[in-house]
Amino acid sequence: MKGAAAVLAAALTVTVQGVRNGEGEIVLAVCEETAYPAGRCAFRITAPAAEGSVRVTAPDVPPGTYALRAYHDENGNGQLDRNILGVPREGFGFGNDAPVLLSPPSFRDAAVTVGEDGVATALTLRYWISP
Q: Which residues contact 75 (CB under 8 A, 6 or more apart)?
C-alpha cells in the first residue's frame, strides 16, 4: 500500500515572493480545510530565507485542495511574531495572494488544487511593521 500512496502523491511548489531579507527561514503550511486557518496543517515545510523570492516544495502531497499560508520567521523562533495589538511583526502571506482584512482569508480564497501531476504557484509576503 505504501507504494500506491507514493504514486498518488505529487509535488506542490510555491514561490514565496517579496522576502525582505535573508534572515531566518520561510515557513509554508499546506492546510486541509478542517485545519485552516489555525489548526495543525497537513504539511509544514521550511526553507532558508533569501531576499527577493524563495522556492519551497512539498514533495508528496496527495491530490486535493489545500489552503496555503506562509510567513518569514526572521528570528528563527518558529512562530509568527506579533506586537501587543496582534499585528504581525514578520512577513506573512496566503495562497492566491488572498487579501487580509481583520482576519485570515477564507479557505476557498487561499486554496490551490493539487492534481496527480502536482502544481506550481506563488504568493507574496506582506510586511505590516518595519524591522
A: 23, 24, 81, 90
Alpha-carbon distances, residue 14 vs 8, 67, 75 (angstroms): 19, 12, 22
In the CATH scheme, what is the code of domain 2-124?
2.60.40
The amino acid at residue 53 is S
- Name the grid cell of 1: 500500500
Model confidence over 5-52: pLDDT tens digits?
445 899 999 999 999 999 999 999 999 999 999 889 999 999 999 999
| Other CB atoms within 10 Å distance of the CB of residue 79 | 10
**Which pTM value belongs to this model?**
0.91
